[in-house]
Write a structure and sequence with these properties.
By secondary structure, this protein is α+β, with helices and mostly antiparallel strands. It contains five helices and five strands. Helix 1 packs parallel to helix 3. The radius of gyration is 13 Å and the shape is globular.
Length: 115
């Protein structure tokens, strides 16, 4: 099972990947939205913002998200680490229910380019 530190490193790496992206991916990541990522097996939630093509983590707290972020993710720590490492494709994990993504309709349309 991935640790909270490994999940934090994975989110930092994902942020760096998004910042270096180009084309449609860069456009999709250019949103300015509140973000939460609940790591279900650790019952910890990272909260922050997707801003300027980067993920900024502001806090980590126990339990599910205390407030409803504009973009909400939920998955196990192992799935987060595997996706960022390229060992698990987001679309496959999302379609199988291993990853939950909730956002407004317009944001979902833009985020589909990240899939």
């Amino acid at each position: 099972m991935a640790t909270i530190d490994e999940c934090r490193v994975a989110l930092d790496q994902l942020s760096g990947n998004l910042a270096q992206a180009d084309g449609n991916v860069r456009g999709a990541a250019a949103l300015d939205r509140s973000l939460s990522c609940h790591i279900t097996d650790l019952d910890q939630t990272f909260t922050g913002r997707l801003d300027g093509g980067r993920i900024r983590v502001d806090a980590v707290s126990p339990g599910p998200p205390a407030a409803k972020a504009e973009i909400r993710l939920a998955m196990t720590g192992d799935d987060l680490v595997a996706m960022v490492a390229g060992d698990l494709k987001f679309a496959k994990a999302w379609a199988s229910g291993r990853v939950r993504l909730e956002a407004g309709f317009r944001d979902l349309l833009r985020l589909k380019n990240l899939l």
